[in-house]
Amino acid sequence: MDAEELLLTHAERFRHSVPIRLGAYWAFLGGAVLCTALQLYPMPIIAMGVVTLTEAVVLGLSYRAAAGSRLMAGAYLAFEGICQTILFWFCGDLRLGVAPIVYTFELINPGLYLGRLAHFVVANGLGALYSLLILLEQTGVLALIWSEVPVWRPDLGGASVVLVFASMNVAAIFVSETRRLLEGRTLDLVFAKQALQEHSAELEHRVQERTAALERSYRDVQRQSDELQAFVYAVTHDLKNPLSAILLTADLALKRNGGALPTECREDLGQIMRMAGHTEDMIRDLLGLFSITSTQEPADRVELERLVSDALTTLRPLIQAKNVRVDVGPLPACRGQPTKLAHLIGNLLANAVKYVSPIGGHVDVTATVEGDFLELSVSDNGPGIPEEYHERIFDLFTRVPETERSTGNDEPGTGVGLATVRQVVAMHGGSVWVESSPGAGACFRVRLPAIDSREIVER
Amino acid sequence: MQVADVDRPPANGLTRSQMPVLVVDDNPGFLRVARAVLESLTPPFLVHTVQSGRGALAFLRREPPFTEAPTPAFVVLDLRLPDVDGPTVLRRIGEHETLRAIPVLVVSQAKWAEDEVAVREAGALDFRVKPSRVDDLRDVFLDFWEGHVRDHHDSCDRR
User: What residue numbers bound the domain in which B102 lies?
Assistant: First the structure.
């Protein structure tokens, strides 16, 4: 079924063909009457009129059936072809001129859809009908058109009036129907064009609205980003300045007087430096957290194995110093922001290595894939984390004091590392939690989006 | 003072005891420590301090109340000052015929890329992060002295 056939339903096609057919029948008959009246060639007008009327009546009777079925429409076409051929028999010598024209008209207005091949089938079918007529004449079944044709004198009286009225009404039906058909088609086009224009205008309006909204939200984001930048700038300078001066002054006091100071005084100054130094570290890490989480980065394919090996390279001195055994299983690829994920991995591994015991320390890195997500696990056999800290440990600046003491680290953590991990995980639509109990080590699990299955196929 | 000094013997007959230095910072705590460090060196610098950008420019131009000010051998300038910012002070120094020859060390709490570009374009010879330990601060000053001042200092108005 090609597109042309779908343009109209069969019923529509047949319906459209009817007024044109009627017009054609009447036009043909009118032509024959004219011919006879002008004495160009006498034709048996009455007989031809009867045949034409028969055609019209059959058309009317079979209208419903033919409109509903292609087969019936085809059957009517065949019937029409037969009737026309009979009319050619009446046309006598004029038949050779008339037949192709009339047959062609049937090809143009068949009342049903004809494919390319079907046109040839119908054309040759009509030719076959004509051949049948010739055969019947040649073999004497049909008489050649009688030479004595009852001359029909056109009536100049009342009957002609009736005929004229009848013809005009038929013409009116024919013309009005044709006009309605053509104009209807044009009207459809006009409506379609109008609808398209309205739709297009609506679309453009929507696009403008969306663009304006987008620009507004972009400006908001810019403003927020600028505000954040200004805040970070202020914190860096105005907070670090006095803190730095505290450290320098305490340091100066120790260096200036050194041995002359009583022990407690030296220790007091040392305490000041430790605490101020720790605060400086906290500010530094906090600024790091801001910097990491506010950097714009497009999502990309991230190889977790590479991130882990990079982090382990950075931690190598500590790993070797503490003689920690690190096992890394096969890790899948992830979909996310590379720099942020690098920090996430770095923080988890740094924690694991830092808080594992100096004797027999063991860190394990594994991952599993579950549908759209992967679950990364970093576990250590350190002192573990008490239950009440399992949620709070991801809060900013929250550390577990017992862990600091038991692992004997010189520099306690700032409590920003896991807060960073939580932020990064949230930005990826994932989650992070810890499974641990004191004395039984800790296992940090991170849920992140796995790489698209589409990308796996492309690989 | 127990601060060890690893400086080389002075060349060209220039010694630090003749050298005035201007330190510009709005944090008096830092000024106090900077003075102590610079004066603790053997031989020591002669330290002058101001706490604002306008003060720094007045000192350098010998405007009141600094009409008797000496020309410093170099200037230590904090980037974030309350009135006029560091790069502006630098530019004003650069516009002045005699002043632009004075080496300037810019210090700040952090090295932001935008700041570094602005500072170098305005004519600073170096930009360092302010350390929080006395030994590191001393190293910063000595690095600048050896790298940018001592050997390149040709004329200096000694008063």
Answer: 18-149
Whether residue B112 lies within 8 A of chain A, CB to CB, comes out as yes
CA gap A190, A177 in Å, rounded: 19
What pLDDT, on the 0 to 100 scale, is given for residue B159? Answer: 34
C-alpha A247/C-alpha A281 separation (Å) is: 12
* Mean predicted lDDT score pLDDT of chain B: 82
| pLDDT one-digit tens code per residue, A47-73 | 888 888 899 999 989 988 888 888 999
Residue A454 in contact with partner chain B when CB distance is under 8 A: no
Q: Record the tokens describing residue B89, joined without a space.
A: 């002070």
CATH 3.30.565.10 fits A298-458, yes or no: yes
Beta bridge partners of A302: A334
Domain count, chain B: 1
Helix (H, G, I), strand (E, B) or coil at A172: helix
Amino acid (one-letter) located at A378: V
Kindly state whether residue B11 falls inside one of the protein's structural domains.
no
- Structural domain contains residue B6: no
Cβ within 8 Å, pair A237-B110: yes
Domain of residue B136, CATH code: 3.40.50.2300
Condensed to tens digits (0 to 9), the pLDDT of residues A334-358 reads 999 999 999 999 999 999 998 887 7
Helices (H) and strands (E) in chain B, counts: 5, 5
Residue B144 scores a pLDDT above 50: yes
Tell me if B7 is assigned to some domain: no
